[in-house]
């Protein structure tokens, strides 16, 4: 299923993960359905069929591959061209790359880290996709690398996805900022939004009944980042607060969990996150057993 988030310029695609105690990146007691997300950024083409630039942020879980690729084909056309940006080299982000390459014309790949996250996909060498890879890096350099580097992705003329490595991360991770839609792509942070039923909405906005608490946010945060309760969280808290003050996003777009839409909603959930990271709130740290 897909949901339009901002006109025809931002769409979220993906499936749902049933939470029944077997999912390692959520609190064991968490129940309901967690959205697994990837995002399509588009610019409308001119009349007469001119090509419309497109960028896919992550590719979702393999279990949702047929659904994601089918929805993508309905949005951009079978076999159409697009670029792909991976926020992380983990399977919930890269799993559908190989079927994506088979079905669409993947023109550019933007990834980070030293290890190529798609080395295991044999078809990519035949597709000549390795030559289309661009290394994401905060520092542009032409020395010591065989891959082109980029700190930003040109989505379309006048529209750029700015890339930054967040201070809060487990493996090499990148956030993306799309000023055109006011969307901040936060990868595996802000993943706490859970749906009560599979036919519910995957977007929390001003029309949604939202019972989120700081305790819930802390539970999801510490389930993924298990080292956080033992860490000095103040620098992480300060970094996130400063980044949100700088960008003032209208949309938080995580790779898992409900999308948060509307500045009031974003600010409320930012408050939950900052409270969860406060060192004096020891009661928010999930207890073993």
UniProtKB/TrEMBL annotation:
Gene3D superfamilies: Ribonuclease Z/Hydroxyacylglutathione hydrolase-like
Species this protein is from: Sinomonas atrocyanea
SUPFAM superfamilies with a match to the protein in the record: Metallo-hydrolase/oxidoreductase
Highest rank taxon of the organism: Bacteria
Protein name according to UniProt: Uncharacterized protein
């Amino acid at each position: 299923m897909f949901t339009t988030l901002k006109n025809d310029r931002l769409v979220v695609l993906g499936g749902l993960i049933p939470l029944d105690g077997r999912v390692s990146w959520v609190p064991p007691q968490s129940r309901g359905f967690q959205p697994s997300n990837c995002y399509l950024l588009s610019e409308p083409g001119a009349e007469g069929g001119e090509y419309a630039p497109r960028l896919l942020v992550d590719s979702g879980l393999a279990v949702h591959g047929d659904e994601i690729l089918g929805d993508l084909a309905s949005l951009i056309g079978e076999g159409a061209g697009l670029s792909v940006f991976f926020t992380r080299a983990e399977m919930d982000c890269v799993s559908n790359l190989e079927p994506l390459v088979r079905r669409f014309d993947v023109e550019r790949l933007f990834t980070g880290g030293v290890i190529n996250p798609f080395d295991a996909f044999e078809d990519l060498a035949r597709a000549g996709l390795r030559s289309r890879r661009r290394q994401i890096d905060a520092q542009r350099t032409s020395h010591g690398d065989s891959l082109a580097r980029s700190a930003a992705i040109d989505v379309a003329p006048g529209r750029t996805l700015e890339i930054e490595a967040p201070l809060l991360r487990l493996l090499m991770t990148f956030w993306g900022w799309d000023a055109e839609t006011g969307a901040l792509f936060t990868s595996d942070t802000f993943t706490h939004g859970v749906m009560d039923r599979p036919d519910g909405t995957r977007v929390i906005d001003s029309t949604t009944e939202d019972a989120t608490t700081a305790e819930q946010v802390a539970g999801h945060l510490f389930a993924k980042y298990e080292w956080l309760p033992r860490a000095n969280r103040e620098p992480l808290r300060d970094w996130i607060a400063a980044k949100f003050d700088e960008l003032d996003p209208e949309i938080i777009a995580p790779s898992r969990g409900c999308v948060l839409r509307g500045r009031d909603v974003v600010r409320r959930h930012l408050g939950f996150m900052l409270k969860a990271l406060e060192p004096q709130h020891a009661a928010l740290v999930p207890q073993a057993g």
